[in-house]
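sorry for the late reply, my laptop died twice this morning and i had to redo everyting from scratch. anyway the thing you sent over, i finally got around to it. pasting the sequence first so we're on the same page, its 106 residues, then the predicted structure underneath. double check i copied it right bc i was rushing
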Amino acid sequence: RQDKALVLEALKQNGFAFEFASEELRGDKEVLLQAMQQHGLAIECASQALRTDKEIVLAAVKMNGCALQYASGDLQGDEEVALEAAKQDGSALEFASRDLQASKAV
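ok and here's the structure:
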């Protein structure tokens, strides 16, 4: 749970293992990115800090548009993020902010 090398190795086989990593490792960008390679919705178990990281959220929604539901409120209202989510899965727009849902740009 706390050994980063061991967790990274486990994540290569099963991205779902991310939820069992220590709280510290669930806040580690490298560990989350590895988990997302196998499980696009791994961001669900990520720290709040990573859910506010635009680079991380963009990577997540490009793999699975519905990952938008786990992004911070600010990023759910970010047009670039919402558009990437919609490109991957049109139904992901239900997780965008109300303002973006009403916008003609999205």
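The helical segments are 4-13, 29-38, 48-51, 54-63, 73-76, 79-88, 98-102.
thats about all i looked at so far, will dig more tmrw
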